[in-house]
Structures are given as structure tokens and as C-alpha cells.
Amino acid sequence: xxxxxxxxxxxxxxxxxxxxxxxxxxxxxxxxxxxxxxxxxxxxxxxxxxxxxxxxxxxxxxxxxxxxxxxxxxxxxxxxxxxxxxxxxxxxxxxxxxxxxxxxxxxxxxxxxxxxxxxxxxxxxxxxxxxxxxxxxxxxxxxxxxxxxxxxxxxxxxxxxxxxxxxxxxxxxxxxxxxxxxxxxxxxxxxxxxxxxxxxxxxxxxxxxxxxxxxxxxxxxxxxxxxxxxxxxxxxxxxxxxxxxxxxxxxxxxxxxxxxxxxxxxxxxxxxxxxxxxxxxxxxxxxxxxxxxxxxxxxxxxxx
Length: 304
Hints:
Layout: H1 5-21, H2 26-43, H3 53-64, H4 70-89, H5 116-124, H6 131-146, H7 150-154, E1 161-162, E2 167-171, E3 177-181, H8 184-201, H9 227-240, H10 249-262, H11 267-274, H12 279-300
């Protein structure tokens, strides 16, 4: 049995709540939407408005059989909790059956990062003798220099650039605005890309900068470059280099933060540059730095 019209309406209202009131990213809202849809389908003919705590526990036992990662399971439970909080808040339900529902603790793992030498190897491995190649090098230079997420970089418009002051305005998760700083090297690549490479990327298409709302990074048809393309750039580069590590776009962000901490940057400053809502999210990079120091000590000290 599929979803009823009432269930579909609840789902759409929930999606709007996540995007507008909770300021969730489109990616997170989509995941929560999918989780609740699966939950509703599992309920079959039962209405989600007539469910008690025990029924929700029954569903959690059911999804645990699929051996999801703890992070995925935690998200699915968070989706249900958020959904019923929404229903209670909107007075669609008189009680919230998930008040005592606890999510499993997420495993704490240290983010993987690249050394400065590894980053330089990747950057120098990008051929910049074509407009697209120069664009790709500029993108990775910016990721490394600013700690931006690839979604933030993809969404950059010309109005966000203040290159005279080496600043870029970024809109992060929940549409939160922050200022990131760029190095002279990254700024030089960006300026050269805008002046020489960008006009040549989309041959036959009008790429003239007519509005401050125009995207900075474009594809070969003149439209905004998407996250998937940026991921492909990195994947292709490390593949061509036979790079020994699996490299993701987020590793540039982790590397940015780790190297700042290693060089004595204040934790609050790093938090601000990364756009973390909580300092606890930033503190993990101090653990990475300490672990790295231990590894260097053990490799270098004769008595280690």
C-alpha cells in the first residue's frame, strides 16, 4: 500500500519546516524526508498520528536488522524525533511519542587529512594549459586556502568576492553567512581564472559577467559548476597521479583546519573560519594535531 494523500501532505509540510524553520541544507532535508517516507511505508495502513513509543521502538528494531552504520541509524532516529517534534509543535498531535527516544552514540573518529607535501603534489598534478584545467587548479587552491565546503564554493557569485581585502563571503549550512580569508597565492589564481580562463571555458555561450549574481565557477555550457563535477576533478587528479590515499573534497577542509591548529591558530578563529556552530566540532582538530605530533615523535626520537 502506498502513501495516502494525508501522509504526502504531512511529508511536504515537514520538508518545508526543515528548509525554512530549521534552516537545514537541501541534502539533509532530502535525507530526513526519505527517512520519514520509509517509516510511513513501513507503517502501511497505520497512521503516523496514532503511534505510541512502543511502535516507534518496534520500527527501530526493524531497521537495525539492515546493519546500517551507526551514523546512518542515528540520522534515521533523529529524523523520526524531528518529525514528531514538528507534529507536536504544529499541534497536529497532542503528545510527542519520541520524548524518551535516544539515538545511539555516534562513533568518534578522527577526520583524515593531507600533509602539506601531499597537497602540493595534488595541486601540481593538475594540468593548467587548458581553461578547464586552470579552473580546476583554482578550485583546489581555494579549497585548500579557505577550508570551504565544495557546496559553498559551487554557490559563489561575483558579489561574494572582495579580493582587494583577500576576503570571500560564504553561505554555509543553514544559510549562515561568514567571511573566509584567502592567501595571495589563491587570490592570484582566482584573478587569473576570472580574467583569462573563465571566458574561454564555455565556447559559444555568453559568459560575460553582467550581474553580481553570476556564478564564479562555470561548466562548458556556461552554467554553475556542480558539486559532482568538483568531486570528479579531485578523483581524476589523484587517479592520474596514482596517489596512495583515497582523497575526498572534505579532506582539504580537514587539512586546512589541522594545519592552522598545528601552527598555533586560536581554536575560536578556526571555528569562525570553518563556520562551525559549536566549538566542540572544531576541537577534534586538536586531537588530530596531537596524534600527528605523537607519530612524528615516535618516528624521530631514538628512545621512542
